[in-house]
Design a protein that fits this description.
about 50% helix; 32 helices; alpha/beta; eight-stranded parallel β-barrel
């Protein structure tokens, strides 16, 4: 059968007395009969799952109401309200899903919320819900993979702790499913750029039981999401759409999709692969009843068995490595071994070269970046964590965590916003014991290194060691699609059969396991003259024998030529089309790869622009100083380098070539440039400021993540920003605009019930004689509503807000 979830809770509570701006979760203890009544309506409508009234029930969300210390109490009470509703309806088959929503803040490095603080936040909420007796968890409306991972790991740990306690007390452990739902925009990506395939691959590996989407879009738009999800996971799919985009008509919020139309869309979602259906904003018991009726005779479609392939992810990208796909490069350059300058920088706490290597290797064609922090005398766990925080907003390539230190490995895996590769797990007992549980816990893939006490000389010995690693990994819970096999290259100068045995091992790996293969190549030529020709020849031989993901230097044109020509010769690049493109585009690739290292003496403006585009906060201050030393004016630096760079980033964002993490990093770099400019030329820097922007989320609305993004981008782009926060009275906004002589006032409303407050603020601004232009935005706001309420402009996102603001001040 198709499982039916309930619909909207907030609007139902508001219709029953919850005041705008009041805490919905407090009703679980102060007015439980109201919450129980809503649950009963959904149960009577046909829901087989009801969701607790705890969407904003985490400590960080309750902090706004001064209720953080009551987190566990309010969540436990919510679960008990749901249980009472089930009992009163006599529907024992109905299950309770403990609802966990976002914090409204970004986890580092995108925001200021520490990962462990986010984890503790969600863990406390999960404990309260477990005390109340929930049957499942639903982590919903998430927009960032970092926060989703923190929530999922916390919930898994809370469930494991309860089951351990129950087992020790002699009680039966409960099977509690964890449901994970992102919310997607019209481009089918989250605000921070995660697509459905990347979400599914990451969450499946991390241990989610059911994967899906909710909010933002209607059922028709979510059809495409379902179709993508089923290509990337075998887990059940859940979809909870909105009843269309909200409209404000005669002061009332209206969702255009009625119950009948909403229900008619349900069978299409089932046919596409969804097995769980429900509703989000604008849906009522009538909508859920229509869905239940529409699918009552349907069963989940039988999905075709999906081949398990090795897939690695970043926040925004999935890379598949498979024997039936073209080989890819793993960039080896972020490794201090044998590189004194890089090692010294890492030891001194500088990651400038690390970041430049990441950018350069990506531009040179790497698909995955290997990251090694193996410098003696440092805290490798701290260094590896820092590397993750520096690199993940900088590049969209998945990362391989290259370390022999279990603490460093966990420090990286815990905060990595995707599915990483562990480089490596050998057959040594200690490595198996420490690394494999971490791979399982954090959903990582494993590079299997055939090494134990002695170096295996033959291909057969390598196969047996790989078998030992794989068997141990599968006992830990890993499965096909989680392994990358290393051929273990030894030097031919000391072992005449070294190359032959590697080639045989690649062939045997393919026959015995069918998993993709990798290796570092340069060791084969150690001690020989003219090493490049040996490496290139050996590389071609390995590709012919089945090498799928060499770990190599992406800047080596000879190796890259070998790879691209081998793809054509092996038939994975039909007719050599990609090879021809690579050869014809060689000069352009070289220019792009060296853009971040433009000689500032020769082209200071180009170097400044490249630094902002690349997010090079470490270098941009010195480049500003160099520009001033060369006689450049502050306005010239601002307009022709810094602003020009942000315009280019904005265009790439609009075209879907970069995503919010990269935009935020470039904006931070621009702010660092402004700060340096102000330090050197205070008066000139002030004159370069673009204008004053007052921003606030209106009264009754406690959501401010979108507003915070806009404020950060504006400030980093050269505006003086006065951020009044959330739930702000109209008079306070007018006073701030008047006192600061603001050029622009930005108003945000996420909830449809608070949209009328936009009209009130705009009217009061006019009555006060303010000359400020008014810009409005927020999830519930549309361009049409912006015109109707008297706003001067509407911004759909932070990048649009910056561009519109620049146009406004430019016209003044």
């Amino acid at each position: 059968m198709i499982e039916i979830f309930d619909g909207g809770m907030g609007t139902m509570l508001q219709a029953r007395g919850l005041q705008p701006g009041a805490c919905p979760e407090l009703m679980n203890v102060e007015h439980p009969e109201v919450v129980i009544g809503v649950h009963r309506e959904y149960i009577d409508a046909g829901a087989t799952y009801i969701t607790t009234n705890t969407f904003g029930g985490s400590p960080l969300k309750l902090e706004h109401y001064g209720l953080s210390d009551r987190c566990e109490e309010l969540n436990e009470a919510a679960a008990k309200c749901a249980r009472r509703a089930i009992a009163e309806c006599g529907r024992r088959y109905v299950k309770i899903a403990g609802d966990i929503g976002p914090t409204g803040r970004f986890v580092e490095p995108l925001g200021d919320l520490d990962f462990e603080a986010a984890y503790d936040n969600f863990y406390r909420q999960a404990v309260g819900l477990l005390r109340g007796g929930v049957d499942a968890f639903i982590i919903e409306t998430m927009i960032d993979m970092g926060e989703m991972r923190a929530a999922l790991i916390a919930v898994k740990d809370a469930v494991a702790a309860e089951n351990k306690a129950d087992s020790e007390a002699g009680h039966r452990c409960r099977e509690i499913k964890i449901i994970c739902q992102f919310t997607y925009a019209e481009d089918l990506r989250t605000v921070t750029g995660t697509d459905p395939v990347t979400a599914a691959v990451t969450l499946d590996a991390l241990g989610a039981d059911i994967i899906g989407a909710n909010c933002s879009l209607g059922p028709d738009e979510y059809l495409s999401v379902v179709k993508q999800l089923i290509t990337a996971t075998d887990k059940p799919i859940i979809i909870q759409p909105n009843a269309g985009m909200p409209q404000l008509i005669d002061g009332k919020t209206v969702f255009p999709m009625g119950p009948e139309t909403f229900g008619e869309a349900a069978p299409k979602l089932v046919a596409a692969g969804a097995a769980y259906l429900g509703g989000c904003c604008g849906t009522t018991p009538a909508h859920i009843k229509a869905v239940a009726e529409a699918v009552k005779d349907l069963a989940p479609v039988k999905r075709e068995t999906r081949p398990r392939r090795l897939q690695l992810t970043s926040r925004t990208k999935t890379v598949t490595i498979d024997k039936d796909l073209p080989p890819i490069m793993i960039g080896e350059r972020i490794n201090p071994t044998g590189r004194k300058k890089l090692a010294a920088e890492i030891k001194d706490g500088s990651f400038t070269s690390v970041k430049k290597e990441a950018i350069g290797q990506a531009r040179a064609g790497a698909s995955v970046l290997d990251v090694n922090m193996g410098v003696g005398g440092i805290d490798q766990a701290a260094a590896m964590k820092r590397a993750m925080l520096e690199l993940t907003p900088l590049t969209d390539l998945p990362l391989a965590i290259d370390t022999s230190d279990a603490k460093a490995l966990e420090a990286a895996l815990r905060i990595y916003p995707g599915r990483a590769l562990i480089n490596s797990v050998s057959a040594e007992p200690e490595r198996l014991e420490k690394f494999l549980p971490l791979a399982k816990k954090y959903g990582a893939a494993v590079l299997c290194l055939p090494l134990e006490k002695d170096l295996p000389k033959t291909a057969e010995a390598r196969v047996e060691l790989i078998r030992k690693i794989v068997e141990a990994a599968k006992k830990e819970g890993l499965q096909d699609g989680d392994f990358l096999l290393d051929g273990l290259v030894l030097t031919v100068a000391s072992d005449a059969s070294a190359a032959k045995e590697v080639l045989r091992a690649l062939t045997l790996y393919r026959q015995e396991f069918g998993y993709p293969t990798t290796m570092g190549l340069s060791n084969i030529s150690f001690g020989l003259p003219n090493r490049p020709i040996v490496n290139h020849t050996f590389y071609a031989m390995c590709l012919a024998a089945g090498l799928d993901a060499p770990i190599m230097n992406p800047y080596d044109d000879g190796m890259k030529d070998t790879l691209s020509s081998a793809k054509a010769l092996l038939g994975v690049d039909p007719n050599g089309v990609e090879y021809s493109k690579a050869q014809s585009g060689r000069d352009a690739v070289k220019v792009a790869a060296s853009a971040a290292s433009i000689d500032p003496k020769a082209d200071i403006m180009g170097a400044l622009k490249a630094a902002v585009i690349d997010g090079d906060k470490d270098s941009v201050g010195d480049l500003v100083a160099e520009a001033i030393a060369q006689g450049r004016e502050a306005n010239d630096i601002t307009n022709n380098a810094l602003t020009a760079a942000m315009n280019e980033i904005g265009a790439d964002f609009g075209a879907g070539r970069v995503f919010l993490p990269q935009v935020l990093l470039s904006a931070e770099t621009m702010k660092a440039a402004f700060d340096r400019l102000k330090e050197i030329l205070p008066a000139a820097a002030d004159s370069a400021r673009l204008g004053t922007f007052v921003i606030a989320t209106v009264k009754g609305d406690v959501h401010d993540l979108g507003k915070n993004i806009v404020a950060a981008l504006l400030e980093n782009s050269g505006f003086k920003v006065i951020d009044l926060g959330k739930d702000v009275e109209a008079d306070a906004i007018v006073a701030a605009a008047t006192e600061s002589k603001a050029d622009i006032v930005g108003l945000c409303a996420l909830m449809t019930t608070t949209m009328p407050e936009l009209d009130i603020v705009i009217e009061k601004l006019k009555n006060a004689g303010s000359t400020a232009r008014v810009m409005v935005g927020g999830a519930a706001v549309t361009d049409d509503y912006a015109r109707d309420c008297g706003a001067d402009s509407y911004a759909k996102d932070g990048v649009a807000a910056v561009n519109i603001a620049k146009e406004i001040v430019g016209a003044m």
